[in-house]
Write a structure and sequence with these properties.
The complex is a heterodimer. Chain A is α/β, with parallel strands linked by helices. Chain A contains eleven helices and ten strands. In chain A, a hairpin with a 2-residue loop joins strand 4 and strand 5. Chain B is an all-alpha fold. Classes of the chains: A alpha/beta, B mainly alpha.
Chain lengths: ~250, ~325
């Protein structure tokens, strides 16, 4: 069953068409790769799905409900959480506090409960959940470190931990491998597989082809805002249009 | 263990100092002490608003909303102070909640200007509508209560009254900041998109901080008018707002006690240069510029700096923050 259905989505900024009637479906439990040359519209597509942009046209269906144009926090509440291209973290908070913010949907409280302490059980649960996620992502040793002190690879793992803490059904990962060395890439691939095995569907935007080919069972290729091709990594790799798009199609 | 014992002793000494202080002061200084106590609440409540990263210019006017509410309730309905004070906070909070809808469509500079405009609109309402607000001349005849043989019009009893109210309010503000709500306010400030992506309704939290901050500054306004007896629109103009900003910036706003530190030190300083009446603004201005140049993180950063210079008494989690600085 498809968990996410993108239907004829277009996004225009003034005269610029960033996405042009793109449609695709993501099946539950897969790692879907969303690839394409720079400026193909991958990040714009993510922002439309996660609610940071509203599509100019078309619809986005998640688990049977339309989410197009809803606010990011509502979409997060329905189970879609994104990670960010750069290492977007609360740099001045500890690893634990970062993940604790991620537990917001479970732990949100009001002023009176916070003052009277009646939300104590809820907050204790959030702390337990945070520790669990930190352990799952292999960050237990770093729990009390500030996010700003972590090396790049660990920061990326933390970014995923923050997202996981909100218990998503669908995780949108925006270039989690960018700038990593081979060792960090291997580690991150392992973590990504672990996330999928825990029952979360992933859509991955990535330029690192080793990671994409190694992780994804099925790829969706965008070029100039339009859907160019879809298929298994082998099919896509041998697709003439895709090769031309990546090489510029000069010859 | 030793350091906790030291902290407790220090806290107790500070508490006793605050409690016996008015008995050693002249009448004029007792007055000043009461206003200082009230201003501590003004800056502490403003800090909650700044936690989300939005600096409003309406805080002084919200204090006025509380003051006018208390005045009107006292004069027209003869309500006692135990009712006018919380109601003043309540009315300020309700007005703040209504203002959230236009104001929090904006952020940053637009919010700054928007909040200033909204504040001026409220102030002009007080000036324009002589009934019930008294126009430019404002209103007078507000009195503090008399309970048994204690007349709170006297400075020392009123000081204890204001001190107790402010202490309770500070305790609540501190609890909010240390709770999950404080954590989320911080998150909204530094990485709003990340907060949104894990389900935080950032609009709601900005609004919440603004409403709570306004509630407590409304209480401060009621405390002030009950002691001063009169209220005018000009008490809550841009001039006072600038003072609030100066207190918070000079004190430092990354820690709860920073702004409180700022208002106390600057009030004492202002008083100590009273004899140089003519050049007082110039001295004040110079000190501000110097403090911003040399202490950009405010007076609150002095203890950490001292520790770094003398290299002793550094606790285990201090070095990391010192390295960053």
């Amino acid at each position: 069953m498809s968990i996410l259905e993108v239907k004829d989505v277009a996004k225009r900024f003034g005269g610029l068409t960033a996405l042009n009637d793109v449609s695709f479906q993501v099946e539950e439990g897969e790692i879907r790769g969303l690839i394409g040359p720079n400026g193909a519209g991958k990040s714009t597509m993510f922002k439309n799905i996660a609610g940071f942009y509203a599509p100019t046209k078309g619809d986005i269906i998640f688990a049977g409900k339309s989410i197009a144009g809803k606010s990011p926090h509502l979409i997060a509440g329905m189970g879609i959480v994104r990670t960010f291209q750069e290492t977007t973290l609360f740099q001045e908070l500890t690893v634990f506090e970062n993940v604790l913010v991620g537990c917001h949907l479970r732990a949100k409280t009001n002023v009176f409960s916070a003052l009277l302490g009646v939300d104590r059980d809820k907050q204790a649960q959030a702390r337990d959940k945070s520790l669990q996620v930190i352990d799952f992502m292999g960050l237990s040793q770093r729990k009390e470190h500030l996010a700003s002190e972590l090396p790049l690879g660990t920061q990326r793992a933390l970014a995923i931990a923050v997202a996981l803490a909100s218990e998503p059904k669908l995780l949108l990962m925006d270039e989690p491998f960018a700038g990593m060395n081979p060792e960090e890439t291997n580690h991150m691939m392992g973590l990504t597989r672990k996330v999928v095995e825990s029952g979360i569907t992933i859509v991955l935007v990535e330029h690192d082809m080793k990671a994409v080919m190694g992780l994804c069972g099925y790829l969706t290729v965008l070029n100039f805002g339009s859907l160019l091709a879809e298929g298994t990594p082998e099919e896509v790799r041998s697709n003439q249009q895709v090769i031309e798009a990546y090489l510029g199609g000069a010859n | 263990m030793k350091s906790t014992a030291k902290k407790i002793a220090g806290g107790a000494a500070l508490l006793i100092g605050i409690l016996i202080l008015p008995h050693f002061l002249k009448f004029h200084h007792q007055d000043l002490l009461i206003f200082l106590t009230i201003n501590v609440l003004v800056v502490a409540s403003y800090r909650l608003v700044t936690l989300t990263g939005e600096w409003s210019l309406i805080h002084a006017v919200m204090m006025g909303v509380g003051g006018y509410t208390a005045t009107l309730l006292f004069k027209n309905y003869e309500l006692g102070m135990w009712l006018t004070v919380p109601l003043a906070g309540g009315v300020a909070a309700v007005i703040a909640a209504l203002l959230c809808f236009p104001l929090f469509r904006m952020t940053q500079f637009y919010f700054l200007i928007g909040s200033f405009a909204a504040g001026e609109a409220i102030r002009l309402t007080w000036i324009h509508f002589v009934y019930p607000f008294g126009g430019t001349g404002g209103l007078s005849g507000v009195e503090p209560p008399i309970v048994g043989s204690i007349d709170f019009l006297d400075a020392i009893p009123y000081y204890y009254l204001a001190l107790s109210v402010v202490a309770v309010c500070l305790f609540i503000l501190y609890r909010i900041e240390k709770s999950r709500i404080g954590l989320i306010l911080h998150a909204v400030h530094w990485k709003a998109p990340l907060a949104e992506s894990v389900g935080v309704d950032t609009w709601r939290y900005r609004a919440l901080a603004f409403v709570i901050g306004s509630f407590f500054v409304g209480i401060a306004g009621a405390l002030k008018v009950h002691y001063l007896g009169t209220i005018t629109p000009n008490q809550f103009g841009v001039g006072f707002m600038v003072f609030i900003l100066i207190w918070v910036i000079v004190g430092g706003y990354s820690k709860f006690y920073g702004p409180i530190f700022g208002v106390v030190v600057l009030t004492l300083f202002d008083e100590s240069i009273r004899s140089f009446e003519e050049i007082r603004p110039a001295i004040y201005g110079a000190v501000l510029i110097l403090s911003i140049l040399f202490l950009p993180r405010g007076l609150e950063s002095i203890p950490a700096k001292l520790k770094a210079w003398f290299g002793t008494g550094v606790s285990s989690n201090e070095p990391s923050s010192a390295e960053k600085a």
